[in-house]
Task: inverse folding
């Protein structure tokens, strides 16, 4: 079981990294994009997610 | 146009990861012996080839829109990680990647590690090289598979990555030193921008959106990501100057 957890944790760290809220923001933006089937939601949403992630990283450091 | 960006992205990502892997392999080879280190490199290369060979054909069976949504989302989250680190480095909030310093640290650790023989190999040297090449190479494999499958050309992406591997290996053999002069931080920034751009484009398409102008819109997304990243770097630099006066 611990191997399964370690395997899952490895892929989580590999893809999501140390800011899970950025991944959550992307998922939310994609959900809205899918619901409205429109392209203009995602670029500004990603811009906000990135700015927020950087703000948290520099405020905590 | 997207084929050029595809090859360029795979090449840059592969080059930057292989420069890092080369540093680890050199430190391992010089301190623990080349036989164990090169065996580690060969084993890791084989393992990576198995990953690509197993997942590549499987990905081509997934319907394109579902593939673009899932892979685009993964690529976007993954790309934001690269971009975030690159912006933090460029703005001075995170130390720049320094291959010379990393090489010196790897050498120190490899020199002091105890010797343990397994299957006729120095185990530390073997595992150090294996982990270095496998973990750095896994990022390249991920990029090749995701870029290649969504663009419908894994061989093209793999070719871009392979050219970089051969180039870095050749220069490494000739120089026999870590490639500290490679503009690694700039290359990482470029890769972060490419991954984020393609991630935005494909995941939105996969979610059912249609970009104005079709594939040409990638250039617009690219310009947007570049401008926004530059803005964030400028804002963070100004903030850092206020927090840490020169």
Result:
């Amino acid at each position: 079981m611990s191997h399964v957890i370690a395997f899952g944790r490895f892929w989580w760290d590999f893809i999501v990294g140390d800011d899970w809220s950025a991944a959550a923001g992307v998922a939310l933006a994609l959900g809205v994009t899918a619901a409205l089937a429109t392209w203009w939601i995602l670029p500004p949403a990603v811009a906000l997610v990135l700015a927020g992630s950087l703000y948290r990283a520099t405020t905590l450091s | 146009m997207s084929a050029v960006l595809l090859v360029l992205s795979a090449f840059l990502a592969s080059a930057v990861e292989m420069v890092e892997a080369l540093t680890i392999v050199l430190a391992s080879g010089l301190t623990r012996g080349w036989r164990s280190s090169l065996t580690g490199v060969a084993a890791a290369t084989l393992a990576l080839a198995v990953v690509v060979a197993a997942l590549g054909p499987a990905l081509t069976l997934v319907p394109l829109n579902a593939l673009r949504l899932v892979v685009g989302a993964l690529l976007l989250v993954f790309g934001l990680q690269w971009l975030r680190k690159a912006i933090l480095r460029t703005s001075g909030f995170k130390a720049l990647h320094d291959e010379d310093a990393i090489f010196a640290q790897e050498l120190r650790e490899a020199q002091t590690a105890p010797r343990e023989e397994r299957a006729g190999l120095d185990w530390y040297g073997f595992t150090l090289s294996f982990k270095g090449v496998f973990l750095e190479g896994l990022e390249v494999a991920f990029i090749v598979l995701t870029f290649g499958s969504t663009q419908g050309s894994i061989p093209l992406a793999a070719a871009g990555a392979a050219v970089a591997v051969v180039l870095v290996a050749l220069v490494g053999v000739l120089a026999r030193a870590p490639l500290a002069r490679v503009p690694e931080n700039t290359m990482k920034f470029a890769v972060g921008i490419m991954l984020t751009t393609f991630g935005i484009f494909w995941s939105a398409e996969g979610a059912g959106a249609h970009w104005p102008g079709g594939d040409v819109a990638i250039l617009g997304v690219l310009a947007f990501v570049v401008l926004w990243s530059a803005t964030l770097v400028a804002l963070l630099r100004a903030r850092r100057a206020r927090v840490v006066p020169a």
